[in-house]
Design a protein that fits this description.
The protein is an alpha+beta fold and 250 residues long. The protein has 8 helices and 9 strands. Helices cover 45% and strands 15% of the residues.
């Protein structure tokens, strides 16, 4: 039994529990380093995985979810640390990833974390895996949506990371998306990741998009989500938009 002050790298923990991962679906399995009651386990693992569109699993490698109390940014280079005590705020992490024997292990901090924040972090990590593996045709279709938005001078983005990259791109180019560059590619992939996160989170949970000066107008967000819905239809019994709701997970 580890001491409460012990810290381990997520790579060491992932290797140690590789043979103890519990299957959830054809693509996902999990392990928790601390006991979790059945009701909480449903919210942490079973319900968010069940809400994933089946087509998402076809694009993903095997994924193991590693539930830990806390995650800490290492002092130097190397994998994040699993801690049983809360780290300093500046070094605290919500998620971290490693690959062990062909399996992507997503570590998620659970102690003191709001369930909505946990779900967002989980779906953001999954969205990152999709964006990294998306075929060129998929990226080209999303880039076309972005170019239409730029041509219409649509302000804002879905999340802060993609908003900042959009601003950098607009300041350093003509801002029409026609010039392929490293900055354009960075913006495109981050915007895709943020849109995917919103889409997956919205299928699972009732969420609100906060309005603000940096928020992309709802008509553009909906167009992106409709496009994702055509590629990754929600599983049976789930819906994204209120008018399509038959059964929703809360």
């Amino acid at each position: 039994m580890p001491n409460q002050t012990d810290r381990f790298t997520i790579l060491d923990v992932a290797r140690q529990v590789a043979g103890q991962l519990v299957p959830i679906s054809s693509s996902f399995s999990f392990f928790s380093t601390t006991p979790i009651v059945e009701e909480d386990l449903k919210q942490y693992v079973q319900e968010p995985v069940a809400a994933l569109p089946p087509a998402v699993g076809e694009m993903l490698p095997p994924i193991g979810l590693l539930l830990v109390p806390h995650l800490e940014r290492p002092a130097g280079r190397g994998p994040a640390l699993v801690s049983f005590e809360p780290p300093a705020a500046a070094r605290s992490l919500q998620t971290a990833e490693v690959t062990v024997e062909g399996r992507v292990v997503i570590a998620l901090a659970t102690s003191g974390v709001d369930m909505s924040e946990y779900h967002y972090s989980l779906y953001d990590a999954i969205a990152g895996q999709i964006a990294a593996r998306a075929p060129e045709s998929f990226l080209a279709d999303f880039a076309a949506l972005l170019r239409d938005e730029l041509s219409a001078q649509a302000n804002g983005e879905i999340r802060e990371d993609s908003w900042e990259l959009k601003q950098k791109y607009l300041h350093r180019s003509s801002g029409n998306g026609k010039r392929e560059s490293a900055l354009w590619n960075d913006y495109q992939r981050q915007a895709l990741r943020d849109t995917l996160t919103l889409y997956l989170h919205g299928i699972c949970c009732d969420i609100d998009v906060e309005a603000g000066p940096r928020q992309l107008a709802s008509r553009y967000i909906r167009k992106r989500l409709e496009w994702l819905k055509s590629i990754f239809p929600p599983p049976e019994g789930y819906a994204l938009f209120p008018e399509q709701v038959h059964r929703r997970k809360s």
